[in-house]
Structures are given as structure tokens and as C-alpha cells.
Amino acid sequence: MEKQYLSHEEIHKQYTALGQTLGYIEENRAQIADFFSSGQNTGDIVFVACGSSYWMSLSAHKTMKQKTGRRAYAVKASEVVLCPDEFRGAYDNPVFICPSRSGRTKELLDAVDVLKSIYPDCRVLSIIGYAENELAHKSDLALNIGWANEGSVCQTRFFSNLYMACLTIAAIAGGDPASIENLKKYLQNAPSLYLKHEAAAREIADASKVHSLVTLGSGAQYGLTVEGAYIVIEMAQFDANYFQLLEYRHGPIVTAGPKTAVFVCSGGFAEHERKIAGEIRAAGAKVYAVAPRGADWADYAFSLDGDYEKEITALHFIFVMQSFAHHFALSRGKDPDNPGNLVPYIIY
Fold this sequence. Notes:
alpha/beta; Rossmann fold; five-stranded parallel sheet; 11 helices; 10 strands
């Protein structure tokens, strides 16, 4: 009998948790809207995070900027801790958004303390998964999405739910209900898309045929493109790389070969995507695209079969990469639930 892994369920049924997260954020609409508009809190929006939560923030802050019209940034908590002077005077009347699965990671907690000392009038919004944590006590508004937590080590379902939370928060802060309706539309179609695309990801995830892997994306999709490579690195214990779409041709493409798998998060740059895909395929590599309505320039397209915002394409890209990572780990003889010496969060 085939062993059942926690990560399989956490990845391939995560649409249930995503729906719960969207509903929860909507239920807290009034508090969220007040956080972004009350008093003097109409200045810069700064995401502060570690690890996978940082890569999520690297995408989410761009959506926040677009939706609200306010300046938005994403910074690594470790940089705040190590180089605090670089953050003095960097922001105008900021609010800080701190996404964290555990709410216990020391460098994030220390970073919040540093930023509060620099900006004593700031407010902090946290999005956390663990019930008992220190970050909530440092926050003016703490949102808890504990149903998204994993029993396995790698951040998969929780990562996707953090991103869902941030997309919904951005829509609320920016007064864009249409984006929320688009998310709901995607979730309605997710069960069938997941079933179809898991089958494709499993077939691609053949360790005998994939000796190197690259993810490509741009703009608001770039942070999730990075995480797409990271989940393969972590779960399958496999070296992978990530690049901005056009950056790849400036040197790194020299490493592409017949056993290279390149996953592209399509941002609708058809002319550029087609050209670079042609260059990659000319090197013998395979190109796999996640796109709203297919991509005839790819060897295989994980198509959403609908007109969706680029953020929803990125959300589905993460599912595809998580599914690939799970099956690739198995193909490599690794345990996707407990890879190596990886721990859920760092406390020192």
C-alpha cells in the first residue's frame, strides 16, 4: 500500500483552507479598513518577514501599492536586525504588515522592536498561523489563520493562504471588490484544476528526466516565482534557481540543457515569453507555463481556462510548484513531509 503523506493532502486540498481564509478576511473587513485609514495611518505600507513569508511579501507589496495607490515595500526582518540605521527615515508615517506562520521567529520579533523604536507612532498588522505566539502581542491588529497550518515541515498550504489573505486585504484597503469576486471564481474552479494539474505535475516530476530546474516570472509574480523554486529546494532537497523572466537570457540560460525544466509564471507578456521560451527550447530544455488561457509557446501549459488577474495566476503557479515538489521528492526517494534537518521556524 502506498504511503500517505501529510503534505499531499495539505497541497492538493488547500482550496478548502483558501476559501476559509478569504471568508475570514472579509469578516474582518471593518477592522482592516480602519487599520489602513484611521488617524494618521495613511502613509507607507511596509511588509516585514522572513523566509517564505518574505518571498510572499515581495509579491504582495506590489499588489498593495497598485490597489491602494500608496508607497509599499517588502523588507527582510534580518536586514532590519543587522542594519537598523538603514531604516531610519526610510518611510513616511508607516504601517507594518508582518506575515508569519509561527509568530515566534526571533529575527522577526526583534525587527518589529527595532522598527517600533524608530517609528514610535507606527501600527503593526500581523497574519499568523500558530495560536500561541509573541507576534500577536506586538500587533495592533492580529489576524490568525490557524486552519492553514501544516503538519508537515515545509510551508505549502500556509504560504498560499498568507498570499490569499494579503490579496484580500489589498482589495479591501484599495476598495476593489471585483478582485475578491475573481478570487472566489478561481476557488470554484480550483478542485477540477488541481486534479488535472496534479496529474501533469506528477508526470513531469521524474528524477531521471529532470537534472536542473528554473522558475521565471516578473513584477507582482516574481516573489511567488522565487518561492516556487524554494519549495523544490526544500521539499525535494534539490538545487533549483529562479530569475526574472528576461534576466535569464543574460547568462544563466547557458546552463539550460535537455534535462532542464523551466517553469514560467505567465504575466501576459506574450511576445517576450514566446521569444525566451524559444531560446530555452533551442537549448533542449523543457518549458512549462502556468497561464490564464494556455501558452502555445510552452511544451505544456497549466491553463486556468479563464480570465484572471496576474495574482491569481501566481497563486496557481505556487500550487503547481508545490505539487511538482511533492512528487519530485518521492521520485528522488525523499520524504516530502520531513526533508533533511529543516525546521518549521527558527527561534534563535
